[in-house]
Design brief:
elongated; Four Helix Bundle (Hemerythrin (Met), subunit A); 4 helices; mainly alpha; 78% helix
């Protein structure tokens, strides 16, 4: 299952939206690797690449929130930390398995893709609305 950046995910903040599109590309590369029966090392490389971009993106979002004194920044950071833990668990799963197994792909779908859609539509949209409202 590939992730698709559609209009329902647009926050209205150019920086956030462009980074989300790039992040989706990284996730789709991981999924492609899994669906094409890529090897363990290739899958780990794709997951690590996605994780690096995740850190970059979360850093940019949190910097923006600090800059505008976003009132719910602590909760947002906590959600980011939860997701980073999930990515670490996926990494451990890949290392322990013989490669990207069906269980791994299912975990990516549930713990990355589902989380991402909910997070963008909920948390990130609230940040963008706050930024765009000029309340800061």
């Amino acid at each position: 299952m590939h992730v698709v950046f559609d209009e329902s995910l647009v926050t209205g903040n150019e920086l956030i939206d462009s980074q989300h599109k790039e992040w989706f590309d990284k996730i789709n590369n991981l999924i492609d690797c899994c669906e094409k029966n890529g090897g363990k090392l290739e899958a780990i490389k794709m997951l690590d690449y996605m994780a690096e971009y995740t850190d970059f993106h979360f850093g940019a979002e949190e910097e923006l929130q600090e800059k505008v004194s976003y009132p719910d920044i602590a909760e947002h950071k906590a959600k980011h930390a939860e997701f980073k833990k999930v990515v670490e668990e996926l990494h451990d799963m890949l290392v322990e398995e013989e490669g990207p197994t069906p269980a791994f792909v299912e975990a990516v779908n549930k713990n990355v893709i589902d989380w991402l859609y909910k997070h963008i539509k909920g948390f990130d949209s609230k940040v963008a609305a706050f930024v765009n409202s000029g309340a800061n």
